[in-house]
Amino acid sequence: MYVGGVGVLPKFRKQGIASQLMGAVLAQYPALWLHVRANNVAATELYLKLGLHVNERLARFYSNNEDALVMETPEAV
Ligand SMILES: CC(C)(COP(=O)(O)OP(=O)(O)OC[C@H]1O[C@@H](n2cnc3c(N)ncnc32)[C@H](O)[C@@H]1OP(=O)(O)O)[C@@H](O)C(=O)NCCC(=O)NCCS
């Protein structure tokens, strides 16, 4: 399963909403991967906490030349 994006409105952040949302997705789709902007600390920390790891760094992946991290669960092949 590929996750194209997850977002929480600013006023609701840091209350565990994304953790719950992604936890529900992971329960149903344990083999999961995604791209995240390399400088997105909040999202990267969220995914690490959920058990994903960085598999690859893609240089200048985004249109503004920012790098992407490919993150995945251990179940992803
Ligand atoms: C990333 C995002 C979805 C997190 O949503 P959230 O509901 O605030 O996340 P949670 O409250 O479930 O946080 C879970 C963990 O993520 C990490 N985290 C969340 N916000 C963080 C921040 N600002 N800085 C560092 N770590 C952060 C922490 O490890 C946190 O655990 P903790 O609360 O025990 O410290 C939210 O910040 C967001 O919508 N950002 C903009 C959109 C975006 O970047 N989406 C990801 C694109 S791939």
Write the topology of this structure:
Layout: E1 2-3, H1 17-28, E2 33-37, H2 41-49, E3 53-58, E4 68-72
Parallel strand pairs: 1-2
Antiparallel strand pairs: 2-4, 3-4
The structure holds coenzyme A.
Residues 5-8, 13-19, 36, 40-43, 45-46, 49 line the site of coenzyme A.
Poorly predicted segments: none
Structural class: alpha+beta
Predict the CATH topology: Aminopeptidase
Which CATH architecture? 3-Layer(aba) Sandwich
What overall geometry do the principal axes of the alpha carbons give?
A: globular
Alpha-carbon distance between the two ends? 11 Å
Under the CATH scheme, which class? Alpha Beta
Helix fraction by DSSP (H/I, runs of at least 4): 25-40%
Radius of gyration of CA atoms, rounded to a whole number: 12 Å
* CATH level-four homologous superfamily name: Gcn5-related N-acetyltransferase (GNAT)
The average pLDDT is 97
Strand content: 15-25%
Structural overview:
- With 77 residues, the protein is α+β, with helices and mostly antiparallel strands.
- The protein has a single domain (15-72), classed as Aminopeptidase, CATH 3.40.630.30.
- It contains 2 helices and 4 strands; from the N terminus they run E-H-E-H-E-E.
- Helix 1 (17-28) links the parallel strand 1 (2-3) and strand 2.
- The longest helix is centred in the N-terminal third of the chain and has 12 residues, at 17-28.
- 12% of the residues are buried.
- Bound molecules: coenzyme A.
